[in-house]
Fold these 2 entries.
Entry 1:
Amino acid sequence: MRLIETIKQNNYETVSIIGLAKNAGKTVTLNYLIEEADNLNIKTGITSTGRDGENTDLVTQTQKPSILVTEGMYVATAKKTLMLSNAKTEILETTGITTAMGEVIIVRVRQRGNIQIAGPVSTADMKYVAGRLKHYGAEIVLIDGAIDRKAVSSPVITDACVIATGAVLSRDMKKVLEKTAHAVECYSLNETDLHIKDILHKINKTCIISEDGSAVVPDIKTSITGGKKISALIDEKSTHIFVKGAVTSALLKDLWENKYLRGIKLIIEDGTKNFVDINVWNEMRRKGLMVEAMNSINVLAVTLNPVSPAGYFFDSEIFKENMGKVLSGVKIVDVVSGGDEY
Amino acid sequence: MRSFMTENTIKNINFDYIFNEVKPITEYGIKIKQEAAPFVKGQEADLKAEFNRIRAFIELKQRRDIIDVLKHIKNILETIDRAKGNQVLDEVELFEIKNFLILVEKMDKILRGISIKDLKLPQLTPLPQLYEKLDPASERINTFYIYDEYSEKLKNIRNEKRLVEKNVRLLKKKIKEEIQNKHGIKLNLKDEATIGKAQKDKIEELNKEDNLRISGENYLNIIYKIKNTDEIDALEQRYEHLSLEEDDEEYKIRQDISKEIKEVSHILQKNTVAIGEIDYIIAKANYAQKTKSIEPEIINDLQIVIKGGRNLKLEKTLKDKHIEYVPIDLNLNKNVACITGANMGGKTVSLRMIGQIAAMASLGMFVPCEYAKLCLFEHIYISVGDDQSIEKGLSTFGAEIVNLKEAIKIGKRKKFLKLTRQLEWMGLREHPKYMYVYAVDVLRHNVLKIAEQFVSEDRLNKAEDIFYLTREEITKAQKDKNLDLISLINEEKKIRKLTENVKNWPTIFSSRGEIFIAKREAKEGELSGEPVAPGVVRGRAKVLYEPFEKKLEKGEILVTIATEPSWTPIFINACAVVMEIGGALQHGAIIAREYGLPCVTGIEKATEMIKDGDLIEVDGTNGFVKIIKE
């Protein structure tokens, strides 16, 4: 089944596309999905976090595919980028949301053309804009996430996500596979039990839960530096530790010092908050660290870009085959070579 | 605003809090609010008209409809300026102008539906001609596009563009299918095919194909892409050309519309001001409704009458703590009024409330009370001793003097309201007594609650009877349901009956029942008592049984039975004090000495023998009071 059909059949209304690195092929993926949707007459709405769709990539000066929008599509983008576009658009709404590139404007495409997209930055604004795109008639809203703005993939906003990965991550294919598998693992961590979630929603702070359901909130400024204090509060009665915000290697190591941690579940907000070094993470997991997330992120597919702008590339067949071995249950699409799906 | 109230005063009377709560929706409304000047003497009629408008909007059902329109109005002042400067507006700007016109028309329609006479609401001017220009297809929807209807030329260009694009697509599709069939390869969405270098025959075959070119190569693969035919190249060139023509034509159309906007820019600007004014009035109406405020009566005489006045900020703070605010009544005339009372008793907040109400009325707002009558002021000043500044090296007192100097400078020229907390120290000295009285009151209420319980159980005849019991007896009764309270009370009543007719208890009596009455040498016409504060003074008497039953004028002599803390303020006007009971440590005696007033106590029946207006002489040194002239 084509990726766009999977999205449609699952009734996913908002899908974010997250690149694991610059030039991982995120924009190619977006164009691919737009074209697929166009072929099937599915009306899409697109927007992005931060500026995207520029002709040349500002960081690496490589040619970047521009986003081709077709008649009937809906777009939310900043005014300055809209004025540079050669697509002809009908103005539907000025949202009042401002970005460095001007106010975010919602338009309907009247004549196809290339467009630059720079959507809202904050999560709340993104939620509003996605809602408006749906309101005007978009069946699927595609959100292009910029580098280091993974926040938008938070399940609060999008129903599912597509991860773009590629040769740019490392010259060593093994490393690319490892990093990609790690990201997918983090994003799709199991969700915590409902009753534990209820307790944590009420507290909404880093805390330790005991078997009787009571919670202790450690007196710390941030979880990043408070590992030792949290660890000191863990005893044989503790069942869950919830860490609000970023989880780092240092924090995990501090927690691991406590012998009771082996039988306790660590709960993080969602996969995007995990900043633990892969090696540390994998080692801890092997030793029996149990991790759950408040919100699981639905990873729909991984798209591959076998070419790196640094000049090297992988054989796409081998790349795909190996990726399939490390990821199970996730669709893998080589968008650069033409979108054959596995 | 600064010449009306200093920044310090605005903060001190919490007017900043109140004014912040008035929230216009549009940027135009916010601008009007920021520029709002107080109504001053001579503008009473204008103020009355403003009050009428506020009242109208509180009552009108159209207020909701107008608020709905206001919520959609955006700031187009910058766009108007650009049009005035002969700039060509872009599509987003034209979209905003179009929406503005739609909303102005909508609001004008609502305003026309208001049929109150002489309301003098700000007037809007719809611009139907300009609107038509922005909606050439008469679609009556609020989106904007450079529509085909703008010019025949534009329409033709676009039609041709569409045709060219369609042809290119068809041609490309045809070639793609041909190549795929001919060579047995699959081209992707980008019309590319990746062929492994191992397939040497295939590569040789594809290299000969006229319609393919190599678009990329690596050590494993060669990537082929469809090559444009001359026909496609020509069509694509035509498309580019048409696009440029289209842009030119669109520019001309935008230029044309921008010119029309420039011509009516003054009307657009006037509309923004009118919208701002309506927005501001509605914001004031909303706030008046939210705070249950009323229209004050504006008078010419220097007077402030407030009934049930509330300090809005304090009320809000208390409400957050689920405590009810007790409204205040007052009547201020020309002259100085003294406000005093226990610490934390609410002196300062009451002063602030007066300032708030005066400032709100002057700024054309309704005021938070049940009734208010006041005049307009040129300046409002408050001094509550909270201005001490370590940085400036000023003590509380120093800061007060600096601020007063500033206020008096303005006050000399103009009518001005000064709110000063005087005699703050009095609060301190009365505090223990205040707390004691307060505690007794709380106890009394609690005891009465217990008594009501007993009454409902038929153990007491009436609640007040509980005061015949001792604390121990009450405690015992609560534990022991069978304790006969009524007979205990009857026993107690019997004892008290013995002294039922005693009106005045003697000052001193011995255990044998001897009563000692001091006999002093009194001259003819003199009443003798105890000298408790020295000095001799003559003046008119004023006999009071309650501190505020009559006004004690300056220079009068206070004649009363005895005093307690609530009497303290009236000592200010008195020139001497005569009391029936109490010794040197009675409240009135202490206050009299603090104030330096001659005082005689212990004159039995003084309040009956001396009448209001009698000219009397008080000799506080020797303890005599002489009635000179009745």
Entry 2:
Amino acid sequence: MTTNNLIPAISFEKKLSPSPLMNILVPVVSVILALLTGALLLALTGKDPLQVYSVMFYGAFGSKYGLTETVVKATPLLLAGLGLAVAFRMQLWNIGGEGQIYMGAFGATWVALTIPDQPAWVVLPAMMLAGAVAGGLWAVIPAIPRAYLGVNEIITTLMLNYVAILWIDYLVYGPWKDPAGYNFPLTPSFSESAILPTLGDTRIHAGLLIGVVLAIILYLLIFRTKFGYEIRVLGESPEAARYAGMNITGKIILVMMISGAICGLAGMAELSGVTHRLQQGFSPGYGYTAIIVAWLTKLNPLGIIIVALLFGGLQVGGFAVQMNGVPATVVSMLQGGLLFFVLGGEILTRYRISINSRRGDDTP
Amino acid sequence: MTEKLLLEMKQITKKFPGVLANNNINLSVKPGEIHMLLGENGSGKSTLMNILAGLYKPDSGEIFIKGKKVSFKSPRDAINAGVGMVHQHFKLVDTFTVSENIVLGTGTKFRLNTAEAVGQIESLSSKYGLAVDPTAKIWQLSVGEKQRVEILKTLYKGSELLILDEPTAVLTPQESRDLFNNLRQMARDGRGVVVITHKLQEVMQIADRVTVLRNGKAVATLERDQITEQDLAWLMVGRDVVFQQKKTPARFGVKVLELRNVEALNDNGRPALRGITFDVKEGEIFGIAGVAGNGQRELAQVITGMRRCTAGSIYLNNKNITNLPPEKIIRQGVGHVPEDRMGTGLVPKLGAVDNVILKGYWDTYARGPFLDYKKASLETERLISEFNIKINDPTAPVSLLSGGNLQKLLLAREMSLNPALLVAMYPVRGLDVGATEAVHRLLLEQRTRGTAVLLISEDLDEIFKLSDRVGVIFEGQINGIMKTEHADLEEIGLLMMGAKQTGEMPS
Amino acid sequence: MSSDIFIAILATAITTGTPILYAALGEILTERAGILNLGVEGMMLVGAVSGFMAALQTSNPWMGVFVAMLAGGAMASIHAFLTVTMRANQTVSGLALTIFGIGLSGYLGKPIVGTPLEASFRIFELPLLSSIPFIGPIMFKQDALVYLSYLIVPAMWFFIYRTKAGLNLRAVGENPAAADSLGINVFRIKYVYVIAGGMLAGIGGAYLSLMYVPTWMENIVAGRGWIAVALVIFATWNPGHALLGSYIFGGIDALGFRLQAMDVMIPSYFLKMLPYIFTIIVLILVTGKNAAKHIGAPQSLGLPYDREER
């Protein structure tokens, strides 16, 4: 008589239908788990996690200054996140958001420095246009080999980030350097007419408005228009798109251009609304953070607004905590960690954990 | 009975989400026997054999090999126990050579030495009539040759129990006959051979015993002399099967589709179509018979605009549609049921409504730049009821639908466009008998309505049942066309293997 | 250009290319198992900082290499868990790792930025070999990690193409279902080679902080991890080609420095752009060529493997 060894075997079985409960539960639990892991890491390196978190939270949301700063930091993430989400929906991995932001800034600066004496209603739209065009073209460069030759866009867009940053370096250390700037790598200040209007006495600028409007437009575009339908079909199933007669190469280039243009706008908004000049390193990796923002919201334009605010808050909290001797890079770690948990949790929306009790042999 | 059973499966049960695939199945195989497992698609035969091959674990039940109880935790256990499985979809590494595929996963030596194995492979090859070049790369081989590699894999490992899953699906009638002779030889050497099939004639041809599965249950095990085709059919389906679907008499009209000397390359840049000429008339079903890989896919693609022709011309109702882009061809009235229904014909993650508008989103379901979802939902509802498709939520991803419902949805959409020509590729692949009958009925309805139908299929039975004329495709050419009522299976088989037709080709 | 300068450039090409080579070798193993790892940049950074810290503590550069290997491997195990067991999107997981790695390395390295390292790797000549005309001074006047790479490349080549384990690896990358049906443990192989790849990436990063610079600074890797990923495509997943490719990239970089030093009229910023632009051009040329010659990535690259697919 063989003994019954009940060997529990954990396996994943495909679910019949995706569970809407999981779609909400997973992100929430992920945030909690990420915070816990971060706390563990902090504790291991000798910091008090509770204290760090509370400083971060109050820094970001506990005062009027904090809140407005959060919004300010959220704005470029919102814009870039929207831009990237459009491309990601079509399975175009635009990792070049950072470079497109810089090139958009370049375009906007060129306008600002060329026609400083024109009135604002001329200069600002011109800057927006220049920023969008510059960012769009920067994205088209890798889009063309992708569309016609299938060249992996992850690497090509990424390489161009480095090129763009070096280009800006060249400009701000060289021909565009502010003569009255004590040799710092930055351009002269923009004129009044090149600065976006702000809300009251806060630093919240019109870029936010652009972002929110854009989010609504993109939502309608993706879910209600023919163009958006094509993007959705192409992203899910390129073969079906071909079968239905859609123009794939054209769409790839067009969508990348739009993606780059929106990121370019993010660059323009950051300059015109916050820094008021072009300077080295004005983007602390917004283009990369935006990738996480876009992904976490499953590319839903309206959700991106919320997550951008969350991440903006993280950024502000990070600055606050720096004063207490914790490097701001802790924020990157939290963001990365959050993404890990969301990625891992994704499987739970599609699969079900089953614990099988199986009768096994005596032999292990 | 003193004869020791090679294999005994007792009370095997296996459940998947939403379906009880195997329900208390008993199966036994004697050494030297060819035992066939008969059942329609979805009856559970593949699942049962996958359990035996160590890929799935049964929820309950026991397996005995040569009287000893075994429990497979992985395919390796099954292989070590002497079970060799030849899957329907070959598990071969394309970029490896034949010998590399055969030795993969065997032996304990660190260094790879395929030269040694070649000798063994060649002797097995000649002993059992499985001719193949050990140094050839898999992607260079024909389908029949690939199957031989799969069989050699099992023999090389010393398998005593061979399992073949639908092996004749990809073979011509003559190749099937050769295969059965080879299997008989392997059985004579003491092995047990299990063949999974849904073809009744094969059972009559070669089985020593047959076990019939239906809806996950083993309904009968019969000896050879106890078998008649009618009995088997009744056991397989559970009701009397009408063998010949009544076709309305042919009423042909003008030529709708005409191909003249069409040439095209495949994805590897090699010639796939080398001068195709034939035509299809209004109200006719023209079947294309042939072993997969002879240009069928490229043929469907050049007609629907998904592939360029390098020479020749294609006419639709006398209008030249050669190399027109797909959207123009769709607008000319060509419907297409593709080989790959989920992924090409339908977008899996989108809902039924979004899939229905796939070919009409540009104008039919649009208002300016926006989509008219109200109209689309109404049309989807209409199609669901008219075609009897089981869908609970038209916005849920269609990946959740069963194979039969997916195909009905696809056909419904294509037919609602009222095409002049319908190209249908492998339309009932993987569907159970109920769904198959439904699809066949729909195709015949189109024929009655006057649509020209081009039916591409691997299943000769299906072609004979539905088509008015059949053309055989071999290596990118149509080397024979005949009326199905006068056609001869033997002759078709020869054509599928490359013989040329003598005499006039009926038009 | 005199031959002396030429030799010097080539020697520098090897040094500059070595961190990329290590990372590329690791990525070859990972991708051959069918997993795309875009976290290489992050793993190199974490390897660089942890190796540096270990070498600082123990005054032993080899300890640094060892710790870097562990650190890279640990990060890779996260990627393996997410992509193999949890079947997550490989692209996003890799990117998450890079972002996380940038953050983690910056966080850990803050206190030691710029610290000089006594116990770094030094260049030493190999007797006899360094006397070979022309090749000698280029290849055999290097440091220990470079010499180690000379051994690793042929060993890896032999492993992949001439051993049973290598055949199994290639099978898993090309057709995991086939490998699975033969009893090869697909999950285990994927885990092993993803982690091995991370270990090599860690060593590549450590090379920068323990030899090339040598110190720790934020963003010391400066995109080399990404170049390594591109290089794997350029090298058609072959270790020998990766060796050549890394040295070519190293050469471009070295050339850029040379030109800067020679006071050429081009601003240094543009010279620094060279490796990145070169990568793009190479990728475009190679993708087209590979497609034409039907050389491809391992067929299951990027796809999660699920056995009970119905």
